[in-house]
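Researcher: Quick test of sequence recovery. Tokens follow.
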């Protein structure tokens, strides 16, 4: 009896277990595939997209490209302008007969004249090669008052040249200095009367003062004292002849403006200089009212530089000339161009 009860209890438990299993379903007897954690979508590793290397677009290194050639200045346009208070410009310049043919100073001579573009010039030592290489190369508006002496063959070594657009030449003459060595053609006096576009008249006298040397025929045995004395006497007569011509000009044209230019071969301490001042003339170097260059010699050994000293190249004027600006040109091309510094003066006619 007890046996039957135990058997019945076992069957009841078995049925209960089967029911529970059915309720939850059966499981496969095969070993389940382990859960595969899905691989995360790989975050793209930055590719180190380095910022583009600068192309060093730094300020470009200069390539030493040569400067463009300046446009040539048209005829009649100055590079060095007139002083604002002046109307005209005069230049005196001893061209040195192109003393060094090997160096060919004519290029510098031309450039200096065209750079300052004077309205009127008193030149000295203009022998044949200066006429040919320098004066003939100047702009066409420049003209001589007298290119030759009266014989029509001997060139003028002390020519006055002027801008025909600015002045009209009314009268002129070219004469030999009385006091001079006659074995050369360098010592002459050129004078002329001009009229500007407003009808104002003025005169210019240009001469190259005398010197004496043992190189001259007949003077080889002169002592230095004799040479100096001879030259001084000649220069005194150069000034006397100039003042005589001025009197003739005044008698014919009246009390007009008069200027004297040149390489006079005397300085402000000399008697010839003082005679010009005593005659009522003023040296532009010491009377220009705006500015002047003073204290420098104007002649020098060719190829060197002029130092401190007294000028022997001058521009004088009477009371009817208003000197505004005076300059001794001392640029580097001057030392190659000649053995004198050119001088220019900006002025007005009163």
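Model:
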């Amino acid at each position: 009896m007890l046996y039957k009860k135990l058997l019945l209890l076992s069957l009841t438990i078995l049925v209960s277990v089967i029911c529970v299993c059915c309720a939850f379903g059966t499981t496969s007897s095969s070993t389940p595939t382990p859960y595969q954690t899905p691989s995360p979508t790989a975050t793209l590793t930055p590719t180190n997209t380095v910022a583009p290397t600068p192309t060093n677009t730094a300020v470009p290194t200069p390539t030493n490209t040569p400067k463009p050639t300046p446009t040539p200045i048209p005829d009649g346009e100055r590079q060095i302008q007139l002083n604002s208070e002046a109307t005209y410009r005069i230049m005196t310049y001893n061209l040195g007969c192109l003393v060094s043919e090997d160096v060919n100073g004519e290029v510098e001579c031309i450039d200096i004249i065209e750079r300052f573009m004077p309205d009127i010039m008193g030149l000295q030592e203009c022998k044949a090669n200066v006429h040919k290489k320098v004066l003939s190369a100047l702009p066409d508006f420049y003209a001589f008052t007298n290119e030759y002496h009266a014989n029509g063959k001997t060139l003028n070594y002390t020519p006055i040249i002027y801008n025909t657009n600015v002045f009209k030449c009314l009268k002129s003459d070219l004469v030999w200095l009385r006091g001079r060595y006659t074995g050369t053609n360098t010592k002459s006096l050129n004078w002329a009367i001009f009229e500007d576009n407003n009808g104002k008249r003025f005169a210019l006298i240009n001469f190259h003062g005398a010197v004496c040397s043992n190189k001259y025929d007949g003077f080889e045995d002169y002592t230095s004292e004799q040479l100096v004395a001879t030259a001084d006497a000649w220069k005194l007569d150069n000034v006397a002849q100039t003042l005589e011509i001025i009197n003739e000009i005044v008698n014919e044209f009246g009390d007009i403006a008069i200027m004297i230019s040149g390489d006079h071969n005397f300085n402000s301490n000399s008697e010839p200089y003082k005679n010009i001042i005593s005659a009522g003339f003023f040296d532009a170097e010491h009377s220009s009212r705006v500015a002047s260059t003073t204290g420098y010699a104007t002649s020098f050994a060719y190829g060197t530089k002029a130092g401190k000293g007294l000028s022997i190249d001058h521009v004088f004027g009477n009371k009817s000339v208003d000197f505004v600006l005076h300059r001794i040109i001392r640029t580097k091309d001057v030392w190659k161009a000649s053995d004198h510094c050119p001088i220019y003066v900006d002025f007005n006619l009163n």
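The chain is about 25% helix and 20% strand.
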